[in-house]
Design a protein that fits this description.
Protein name: ornithine decarboxylase
Largest sheet: 10 strands, mixed
Pfam family, one: Orn_DAP_Arg_deC
Cofactor: pyridoxal 5'-phosphate
Shape: elongated
Strand content: 15-25%
CATH architecture of one domain: Alpha-Beta Barrel
CATH class of one domain: Alpha Beta
Distance between the termini: 16 Å
Low-confidence stretches: 1-7, 425-448, 452-469
Oligomer: single chain
Family: Belongs to the Orn/Lys/Arg decarboxylase class-II family.
Pathway: Amine and polyamine biosynthesis; putrescine biosynthesis via L-ornithine pathway; putrescine from L-ornithine: step 1/1
Helix content: 25-40%
Structural class: alpha/beta
Mean pLDDT: 85
Radius of gyration: 24 Å
Number of strands: 20
Length: 469
Amino acid sequence: MKFTNLDERIHVVHPDSDSWKIIRDIAESGVQEEPFYVFDIGDIVHKYKEWKLKMPRVEPFYAVKCNDSSTVLEVLAALGTSFDCASKGEIMKVMELGVDPSRIIFANPTKPASHIRHAAAMGVDTMTFDNETELHKIKSLFPTAKLVIRIRADAAVAQCQLGMKFGCDANTEAPRLLKLARSLDLDVIGVSFHVGSGCGDPPAFRRAIASAKMLFNAGENLGYNFRILDIGGGFPGNKNSSIHKISEVVNAALEDYFPDPGLVRVIAEPGRFFVASAFTLATNIHSKREIPAGGETTSVMYYINDGVYGSFNSLLYDHAHVTPIPLKNHSGKLYPSSVWGPTCDGLDQVTEMALLPLMSVGEWIIFEDMGAYTLPVASPFNGFPLPKVHVIADETIWYMLKDHLPLTEDHFVLGGTPNNLRLGLDIAGNEVMQDWSMPSLCHQDSGSSLEDTSSSAFHFDYVEVGPIN
C-alpha cells in the first residue's frame, strides 16, 4: 500500500484521551469550522473482543456496505475478521488489502452478470441466492461456485426490514430451489438468513435457525452435505446497546439445532455492531433563527454545516434517530429547537424537535453513534464538503495492532498529534518514536476459508512506501 499526503493516518493518543477530548481540542482551536469526525479504532477492537466473548462459535464477516472506510477494513482485517461483500467494487476494496478471496462471502442474492464474472476471476466462490433466475445465471457464468440459499426470516422489530426484497420462503420456495440446484448440478453448501438490520426482536434468530435446520435436513435428502450456516446481521452497535440478549438466543439455538461445531461452520454478517459507536461527528452552528412570541424567544432553529445530503443521509436510508449534544456546557433554560442542514433544500432537517440551551453561532453540536450507513452514502450536494475523518487510537491499541498486517507502523503517527489534529493537517514532519516495544495482539485465528481451514487468511503484495509529504 502506497501512502499519499491525502491519506489520514491513525493518530496515537494518550490512554487518558478519548473522542470527546479530541473533539474539544480541535473545536476550541479557533481554526476549524468545517464538520469533522473523530474515529476511535479502539472502539472496534473492543467490539471484536465482545463478539468473541459472547458468541465464540460465530465467525464475523463484516458487512462492507455499512462503512467501507479503508481504515475500518484494515483494522478488521488485522483482527482476523472476514468480509461480506455485495458487489465487485467491495470485493476489490477488500482484496486490495491483501485479504484472501476465501475470506469473502458474496452475500448479494441478486447479482449483475459482470459481478459474478468478476467474483469468478478473483476466486471469490461463495455466494448467496434466493431465486430460480439466479441459479440459472450462476450455472451459466460460475458453475463451480459454492452456493448458500437465503431464506426469509423477518424480525417483528428491526430498524431496516430486508425481507420484502430478499429471501425465499423456507417452507415453499426453498425446497423447490434446492431441487432445481441439484438438477443443475450446482454445489449448495448451506443456508443463510437476515432478520433485518438493527434487530429489536432477538427470538427471530431462534425461529430462523430452526428453519435453517429444516432445510439442512431437506438438503441431506437431496444428497447435499450442508456445512455453512450464515445467521446474517441485525446486531446493534450504538453506545449503551448490547448484543447480550441476541447472543443468548443464538447460542441456545445453535446448541439445540446444530450442537456439533465440527459439522457446521457458523458465520454472521455484522455491520453496525462494529462501527456505529466508533465514529463521533462534530458540526458547527453557522446560522440560527430565534422564533419570537409575546416579545420572548419560544423556539430556535439552528443551521449546521452537515445535513441529510451528507452524514445524516442515515435519517432517510437507515431510519436513524440522532441526538444533538452541545459541546459547550450551558446552564439555564432549554428551548424547543430544530436542527437543519446547510443546503437550500427544505427537507434538509436533522432533528425536528429537541430541547437545547440557547447557543450562539460558532458553537459546536456533537452527534454520537455516526459510524453506520453515513459516510458511504454522503454527497457534497450544494457544494458543501464531506466531513474530514480524524482517526485515533490510544497507545495500548497501537501496540496491539501496529504489526498485524495489513496494518503496519507506517499507518500510525506519534508525537505532536494534538497540534496536527487541531489544524486538520496531515502528518508530514512528525518524528515517530522507534524504541517502543510491547507484546503484539494475540487474537484467535478465525480460520481461513469457508471451505478449507488450512489455507492462509491473507496474501500480501509488498510495495515500497514513499515519504509522506
